Amino acid sequence: MADPLLKHDGNLRFAGFPITGYPVDPQALGERVKALLDEQEIDTYGALTLWFGSSPEHEEPARWEGLVGLACTGFPRPVEGMMVEDYRNLSALSLPHSGPIKDLGRTWRRLADHGQSLGHRLRPYWRLSLRARRLADGNLLPVADVAVFLDT
Fold first, then answer.
1. Is pLDDT above 90 for 92?
2. How far, in Å, CA of 95 to CA of 145, rounded?
3. Which of 14, 140, 31 is nearest to 67 (CA)?
4. Do 147 and 111 contact (CB within 8 A), yes or no?
5. According to the CATH classification, is domain 5-151 in 3.20.80.10?
6. Which of 29, 65, 106, 115 is most buried, most CB within 10 Å of its CB?
7. pLDDT exceeds 90 at position 99
8. How far apart are CA 57 and CA 75, in angstroms?
9. Domain boundaries, given as residue ranges, for the chain
């Protein structure tokens, strides 16, 4: 099993739509965020991200609250219910997640325990990044990465 990877993400501006529960079609929400930011000539980068505000281990996915969107540069205007949030000095422990959505809490717990064993305090939010990795044969493999954020 892979070891958690510690990354320093720095500062992040994130634009997304608020959600309650794991969305039925996060890709569609991400595409809508991208279209709204493109209209404002705002650049996006990175994977489609689901940003959640509390631990996933004690609540059902239907009760999780957060945002679905993309990291961006510039100063986007919040339109059509889209929210824009800034995060500072992000450091995260991350791991790939290959199980069902209901098991995200286990991956989160492994990361949280590892971070605390290193002497870090957890921030109250976490991230699920959804991307596709191209295989040698040209096919795309969906990849999900869970990250917990730390105060370092």
1. yes
2. 6
3. 14
4. yes
5. yes
6. 115
7. no
8. 34
9. 5-151
